[in-house]
Records
---
Amino acid sequence: MLDEKSALEIQESLSKLVTTNDQLNNIQYIAGVDVAYCDHKDTLVAAVVILDGKSLELICNIECFGVRLLCG
């Protein structure tokens, strides 16, 4: 399992890869993903949303509730 110190080192290393200027041309789709863990149950909730890159119109959204958490 990853300890806090190692996680912070990875986060620091990855932060150097972040760019704040626009380097993308002709974006067709934009996707967002989120996963949440329920404290009181061993289950996950997840969602994926896909938007049109120009109009930001919703193309697709998928939700998944009650997936059993499998560690490892």
---
Amino acid sequence: GMCRISGGDEHLKVKKEGEATIIGMTFEGSDDSAISIAKNTDGRQKICGCSFSNNAGIGKGIGIMADDMTSIFVGGSFFSDNVSTNAQGAAVYADGKATILDSRFFRNVAQMGGAVFAGEDAELQIGGSAFVSNKATRGKQKGPAVYVEAFGGNEYEDGGNNFAAGNIGRACEGVHMEYLEKKDENICIVFQEADLENIVEGIPGQVDTDPPTSGPTSRPTSRPTSRPTS
């Protein structure tokens, strides 16, 4: 079984001089960011095959908080029932470079970016991942799955093979791109639509299970061009 950290406050903090590889751990019950990565941290932080469940607090990035000028890789990980009551990105908040592959996000809740929030200085890539029943709660409920502040130096790259279903908020089953100075240009990068019941059946149990193994295992190479029609 996996190593498990339970209980309040931060579980792991990576400081400026640190470079971490975190594999096969479960983080649950934190009332702050389970993993917090400090500003201007050297190197790339790797988080692979981990589970983040039932963490809840008032701040941003209750699962993973990656501050300015950081670099993270998240692979094969599972995020469920994480809640940020007063901020953004319940599962992952990134304001640096972030790559998320082959991961699943289920029932995460935040004001914006119910699962993932990318700040104005972020470079975000998502591939081979599924977003199910996540929720945005603030105002117009933008970005229940993924919210990107699409201005300044921000970039988003779609790695393909992403799925979304049943996310609750403004109608964007994918990545909400927010252009703050040009609100009429806000767009939704739509992920592939999938049968909600089948996706939920394929999602691991919330705590007592290993990370998903049945999803895509390699980096996607094609970019979805439209919402499936059949």
---
Amino acid sequence: MKVLIPQDIREAGKNYLKERGYTVVIGSGFDAATIKREIADADAVIMRTALYPADVIAAGKKLKVMARYGVGLDNVDVAAAEKQGVYVTVAKNCNLYSVAEHAIMLMLTLARSQVYVDRESRKGAWGLRNSHSIFEMRGKTLGIVGLGAIGRQTARMAHNGLEMTIVGFDPYADASKLPAYITLAGFEELLKTADVISLHIPYTPETRYMFNATTLKMMKPSAYLINCGRGGIINEDDLYAALKNNTIAGAGLDVFEQEPVDLSNKLLTLDNFTISPHNAGLTVEAADAMAVSAAQAVDDVLHGREPMYPVNNPKKA
């Protein structure tokens, strides 16, 4: 049976499949036309960031399972897959620690002005040590927007490791199942009280531009905004204005509305902005775990077993 991988994954996942007798095919491209051509005779596909709308899925006449290398689903038409009788699965919890650590890293990078300090120190600006313009996080309030597994892990690291106070906003959270150190708050209350806000929510019509000129103005002027969730949750033009005008103190983004980021993006000109290339969840450990998880999902479905983390129910289609 053929497993198509349009965008390559770690060897651990490919080896898992090869050891079980699958034909693993690395795609020759991940544009729609190429995927349509190469998915035609595939029994399974492992997805990364390429787009899988209904017409691409329909080209997979033999397709039984589409396994996501990660957890984001904004690039795949899950309903179309279900209608066609195709499982869609995610690699749940594989990058839990990786993304949470990255969010903490971006927060500390901003609090210590590390990008600027590193650059200027290399020029010999040793006097920066006496500028008293960097901050510790102990005693500060971290606002978590989205209390799924990654949001909760970020809260745990910040509370246990940095002694931060944690407030959270999630309309779907069950307060009885949250640790005692997370206090639920309304969205506006979180905006007004948090020293750092970290986003861990999916991109949906409801969350599009959730952070805009109006909501950014509700934040503390000393606050930092971190996004390791999805692009499109923040209006980047409004964020640029807020950073440029010191409406907020800084921002660190791992995800953007357009990826790769256009080098003309005005955010890239700011010293109170730090960037990473959507790699928060791509440590060696997380990448290996996601690759194996996706491969296991493929193997489960193609052998008639229920996959561990399905997001649809093709049996009812």
